[in-house]
Amino acid sequence: MEWQKLNNNNIVNPFPPYIFKFHYDFEWERIKDKVYKTFETVPNVSELERGDSHSTLFDQGTPPHKWPELAEYFQWLHGPLSQVWNSMNYNWYAKQTNYQNSWFNIHRNSGETLEHQHAYTELVITSYLQLPKDSGYIEFRDPLEYHKAHTPIRHEEELWKEVPCATGDILIFPGWLKHRVQPNKTDLDRIVMTVNVA
């Protein structure tokens, strides 16, 4: 009886959320060839990539946030970023958006990105340019992990939570939040654009 009453009430959470999801319809066919050419010309030196994967992280000569083909998208991003700053209790209207760097990742069959965080970055923007069905999702590690050490949870199973997405979805989250990407178990390419916001 008491449980039923509890379910009829609201759950109170006064703290800001960590992860925000938006959607943008990219003109993928327009930029596809240029993105693939970037993978061909930029060395893959990221230690976080495993399996058949490739990151253009260390080529910031012509990063995606400076591409004319993506100017409309980055202009659109000001709206979602304003919502995120506001929801996280930042004084967002005084905040100047600074795209620190940006890059592409491709994960072919077996490709994955290992656990990491983005140091010295306030927000991370992950944009799914091509996310085939069953090609894997991003997972986030519970930031309260150490506080839950003595709680009755299955730590190895419950500390990581996946966030299902689709092509065109945008995730924005703080740079300190640990995350990883599941292995791609399909024969189709998963392609993501990541942006650090300082």
The biggest beta sheet is recorded as: 6 strands, antiparallel
Structural class: alpha+beta
First and last CA, distance = 49 Å
Low-confidence stretches: none
CATH topology: Jelly Rolls
CATH architecture: Sandwich
Rg, Cα atoms, Å: 18 Å
Brief summary:
This protein is α+β, with helices and mostly antiparallel strands and 198 residues long.
Structure description:
- The chain has helices at about 1-5, 30-40, 70-75, 80-85, 155-160; strands spanning about 20-25, 50, 55, 100-105, 110-115, 125-130, 140, 160-165, 170-175, 180, 190-195.
- It has about 200 residues and is of the alpha+beta class.
- It has a single domain, classed as q2cbj1_9rhob like domain (Jelly Rolls, Sandwich).
- The strands form two sheets. The chain has a six-stranded antiparallel beta sheet, covered by helices on one side. A five-stranded antiparallel beta sheet has the order 2-5-10-7-8.
- The radius of gyration is 18 Å and the shape is globular.
Give me the secondary-structure topology:
Layout (H helix, E strand, L loop, with lengths): L1 H6 L12 E4 L4 H14 L7 E2 L2 E3 L15 H6 L1 H10 L11 E9 L4 E5 L6 E8 L7 E4 L13 H4 L1 E4 L5 E6 L4 E3 L8 E8 L1
Antiparallel strand pairs: 1-9, 2-5, 3-4, 4-11, 5-10, 6-9, 6-11, 7-8, 7-10
